[in-house]
Amino acid sequence: MNADFGAPKELAGGLQQRRALYQPRLPPCLQGPTVRAEYGDATTSIDSSCAHVLAQAFPNTFGQPLVSFVAPADAAAAAAEERPPIRVGVVFSGRQSPGGHNVVWGLHDALKAYNPQSVLHGFVGGTEGLFANKTLEITDDVLASYKNQGGFDLLGRSIDQIRTTKQVSSAMATCRSLNLDGLVIIGGVTSNSDAAQLAETLIQNNCKTKVVGVPVSLNGDLKNQFVETTVGFDTVCKVNSQLVSNVCLDAISAGKYYYFVRLMGRKASHVAFECALQSHPNMLILGEEVALSKLTLMEIINKICDGVQARAELGKYHGVLVIPEGLIESIPEMYALIQEINILHNNNVPVAEMSSQLSPWAAALFQFLPSFIRRELLLHQESDNSAQLSQIDTEQLLAHLVETEMIKRTKEGRYKGRKFSSVCHFFGYQARGSIPSNFDCDYAYALGRISLHIIAAGLTGYMATVANLKDPVDKWRCAAAPLTAMMSLKRHLRGPGAIPIGKPSIHPSPIDLKGKAYELLREKASSFLLDDFYRTPGGIQFEGPGSDAKPITLTIENQDYVGDIEILKECLSKVRTMVKPGCSREILKAAISSMLSVTDVLTVMSHPLNAELPLYHFK
Asked: What is the rounded distance in angstroms from the CA atom of residue 200 to the CA atom of residue 281?
């Protein structure tokens, strides 16, 4: 355990010191010591066919209402009320992401505003510190040099799970030992899935600690009807977009290299997608497209080569290709190979013997791959038993196979341009410790304060959420959404006969291939490929024009789910007002006919077919 966690650190002048002075902006409802909680209707699962399974797995926390937070009707009277001190613990559970420290800062400030005698314990070393009850009391002095700073070095992090019986029991013992009123878990889909289970278990064991999740993930894949984006996504995309745009300018300057750039994004391609919209590389391959269309490795290679050849016909022998790190698992035959290797790992088969124990087709594919990829595929698994995708050089694999195919086309006379040359990059860890953008600073700080209000309201198994993020801060809607409403079970097969299987979880949200942002990308695909329509966003701006820029995907999509719920409530209220006993038979018949049509449509929509979606072509 690092003994320096929580120690004051020297801010190396300039930007770091100026950022420490930035005071995050807050929506009006969070500007006082208390809020008023407005309780909505009971929630259901994001997948209605899984609702009965979730109700059985989470008898105490499934179906809880959505809760909105608004300013008290009488702010002065509310501020004067006596409030008991609250004891809260906070833990970094997910991968480090810019803005995480501001969640802790917002939580601390809200606690002290609620009652100055309240105490905030930070668990040193992440979840392992939670299990071992290793704490650091968070104070103003401790926070001073971590405000608006990147990384998770205030407390550190370790394994990203609170899942096994031993882990859950240890966490519960710590909560009881510290007499915690609340536990705030900061992380992504895995951490918040574990938070939901922990909340249920604590209730079943009569432990008073309330569990709150906070959506912090650089991958941006914790997106659903309640969560518009995650803390850290904006910063990571801005940093990576600058790097990609720098590479684009380098490529066009030299005019002789193709840059293959791999970005973060394991289960979903949100970072690569956003960076493409910000920097306009020539080609982008999304894992969602590949998985949906079941493109093989060689089909992907041929599409890239077709793009290279089309550019060569215009006299262009340079370009930039962007891919997510999870692409390799989206390719059907590569996914199957990785699954076989994972099984061998789980069976403790020595690495040296794995290739000989693969099935015949998997062994043939394995031998076809370059030696460096074979070596990387056999690396030991991550803590969640998945492949180490960050260590698999997919961009180098693609570059190698594209070069081989271009040589083949040259020999066959199908390609008459210059020799293909490539340069490969993986922009992965460079952005995780970045100084967070204004948006991430504001968003994280607000989520921290909401977390306290969730605990103070006696709620457990909830996630702190903010809606209307595309608008200015004073228009943001603050709420608490039940974690179980975001959960579902994976389906064994596609189509109407699909069977939900596995453990209920919050699953990574893929890119919406029917969404407005994807439509925009498809419209510009041809221009991106052939016109060198590169865009240079530059570094993150903290002051002046551009300092409040938000992710393009966030601003394009209309995601005010809570606002839409309010519109529906208003419509239903109007119907109740107009259709009362005594209304005319014509009005009653019209209402019945309309409502039957609505229920028929909603019944069909609640059991959707997995229709084929269009593929983003490079043409």
From this structure: 46
Quick one: 446 exposed, middle or buried, by C-beta within 10 A (0-12, 13-18, 19+)? Answer: buried
292: amino acid identity, one letter? L
Q: Which residues contact 555 (CB under 8 A, 6 or more apart)?
A: 470
Judged by phi (left if over 0) then psi (alpha if -120 to 50, else beta), residue 210 lies in beta
> Residue 75 has what pLDDT?
85
According to the model, what pLDDT value does residue 494 have? Answer: 41
d(CA 241, CA 249): 12
**pLDDT greater than 60 at residue 609:** no
Structure tokens given for 110: 């809200």
The closest of 157, 11, 138, 20 to 96, measured between CA atoms, is: 157
pTM for the whole structure: 0.91
Instruction: State the alpha helices, DSSP H only, in 257-415.
Output: 270-279, 287-293, 297-312, 327-330, 332-346, 351-354, 360-368, 371-377, 394-411
Cα separation, 530 vs 409, whole angstroms: 20
Q: Give residue for tokens 């050089």.
A: 393
3-class state of residue 526 by DSSP: helix
Tokens, residue 452: 């306290």
19 — pLDDT class (breaks 50, 70, 90): confident
Helices (H) and strands (E) in the chain, counts: 23, 15
Spatial separation of the C-alpha atoms in residues 228 and 466, rounded to whole Å = 8
Query: In b/e form, how buried is each residue of 102-113, taking b as 16+ CB within 10 angstroms?
Result: bbbbbbbbbbbb
* Strand (E) or helix (H) holding 524: helix 516-531
